[in-house]
Amino acid sequence: MIAPKVPVTIVTGFLGAGKTTLIRHALENAGGRRLALIINEFGDLGIDGTILKSCGIESCPEENIVELTNGCLCCTVADDFVPTLDALLSRQNRPDHIIIETSGLALPKPLVKAFGWPAIRTRATVDGIVAVVDGPAVTAGRFATDLNALAKQRAADPSLDHDNPLEEVFEDQLLAADLVILNKADLLDAEALKAVEAQIEAMLPREVKLVHAQHGAIPVEVLLGLDAAAEDDLHARPSHHDNEAGHDHDDFESFIAEIPALDAPSVLAIRAARVAAEHDVLRVKGYADIGGKPMRLLVQGVGSRIETRYERPWEPGAPRRGELVVIGLKGIDRARVTQILRGED
Fold it and tell me: CB within 8 A of 149, min separation 6: which ones?
């Protein structure tokens, strides 16, 4: 008897949209499902995986959480993703559902294409692609564009290059989606919500459900069980990169900044907001040591919006090392950004 295909949900969304929070909520409300996670970070330091592994949630034990760092899944399908998924599907007690958290810079379509590989196709299916959108960021005009105006500009002066790589990534995530979650809706008034919805719906190539969320709190019945079989209708999911042989992240780069112990979380928040304002920093996330506190400080920043909270105790006997992953546009001044974060400027 052939076992049924394991459904796989791909959670995509731009940097800081709230993917990890959404997934944690799903784990806490799994409804008896045995879940497994594949988490992809853009950068060498796995932050999101550590956050989820520290949850202690019975529906997804630590051994079912797989981290893939320092390489985007959409660029390393053959080397990293397919073997990882194959290993999960080959377990004797295989999961009921697999959730993949892509990096904020990933294009979902190359990942979906991997489900046509012989080693995967008969054993797993893409239940749905979920795009998590940062409502306040879109309201601020960071990750949306007027495509008609852009076309007119190019036609007027072909020598100009108006491509915005951030907006292309954002649009590709929406173009592939089966469900769009407008997150942080509580931070927008009714007029702003309507405007964001209109922007998103104008980009969608087909009818896609759009739901609001606060802190990623979506019923698991809405998130899982979409039954989209996305690998079978790739033609309905256009991409800016459909005619390209491959995709890379030459527009972006990441590095790790080591920071010394600090007196207060507010000190680091001010520094992180400063590098976002003065340099091409898109995202800052990591851990810091605050003046002998037993708990380590989790830092997550998108632009000038910086959030900090004490996350869990430092490991006994382990060094209390402060490390931040910094993600920015190509050519970012690493030395200067590090100086500011360390308070050495």
Answer: none
| CATH H superfamily, domain 6-236 | P-loop containing nucleotide triphosphate hydrolases (3.40.50.300)
Q: Contact at 8 Å (CB) between 122 and 32?
A: no
Residue ranges of the chain whose pLDDT lies below 70: 1-2, 41-80, 143-165, 241-252, 302-303
What digits encode the pLDDT tens for the residues 155-179? Answer: 544 433 434 467 788 888 999 999 9
Separation between Cα atoms, residue 277 and residue 134, nearest integer Å: 19
Domain ranges of the chain: 6-236, 252-342
Residue with tokens 């990890």, as numbered in its chain: 20
- List, as one string, the DSSP characters of 274-300: HHHHHS-EEEEEEEE-BTT-SEEEEEE
Instruction: Domain 252-342: state its class.
Output: alpha beta
Q: Is the pTM of this model over 0.90?
A: no
